[in-house]
Known about the structure:
The protein has helices at 17-25, 45-53, 74-84, 107-117, 157-162, 172-182, 212-219, 224-238, 241-256, 265-283; strands at 4-10, 33-39, 59-64, 93-97, 101-102, 121-131, 137-139, 152-156, 186-197. It has 284 residues and is an alpha/beta fold. Strands 1, 2, 3, 4, 5, 6, 7, 8 and 9 form a nine-stranded mixed beta sheet that branches. Pfam families: Glycos_transf_2 (PF00535).
Amino acid sequence: MTKYYVVIPAHNEEAFIKITLDSLVKQTLMPGKVIVVNDNSTDNTEQYIDDYIANYSFIKKVNASSSTIHMPGSKVVNAFNKGLELLDDEYDFIVKLDADLILPVNYFETVAHIFKTNSSVGLAGGFVYEQDKAGEWKFNHPMNLDHVRGGFKAYTKECFKAIGGLKSSMGWDTVDELLCNYHGFKIFTDSSLKVKHLRPVGKSYNKKAKLLQGEAMYKMRYGFLITCIASAKMAIKQKKLKVFIHNMKGYLSAKKRNLPFIVTKEEGDFIKKYRYRGIIRKLR
């Protein structure tokens, strides 16, 4: 039988953590282990986690004491890695799961089937749905359809080891997929897996985070031209010129400070070629 582990970083998630854990313990394919990382919560998150631990032996908790500022990228990955320390390697796939989601009951059974029937797939997931003002759950996926959102990434062990785990940086949920491709793994998204997201992306992010997207593009070795194109695309999709300006400021600031890259030169060369091929393909 397929065995999988789940790590859930949780910072002040009292409004959602019970709903997420409830959808997890109702899965048709149950996880082997679940590690919930209580990341410096100041509300009732820990108590709610403890309530589930008391009833489900496969759920464990670890406390982390990172910053209370919700910065995208580093905070959540550092918490994930804290939970990862408690796990062994006896799994078929591993999941990074957010604490504000409702999963379909067959979510992980379907993911397991995807991995089992497609040996080349290294990363899989569904799609996000969010409530509009009328309370209707609407599809919300501004990226390419072959992208798995960071809130519910599932990696085979072979893929996770090959990419070196998750990078503690803004852009971790982009570079992981680029490295999947670099190492010869495919990404699979299943439209039947509709994940309900209870909190819109970015609602709790600190204002300082606005420059981090451009910084991440620098760290991924995009280069100036690809950063310009990618930033313009983001600005057009979001209909906000400031997105382009902030991205370019972040990129140029990171370059000026000579920040360390999160990929090797060889990986960076692959990423640039991969991005250029994607741009050319869309222009045809």
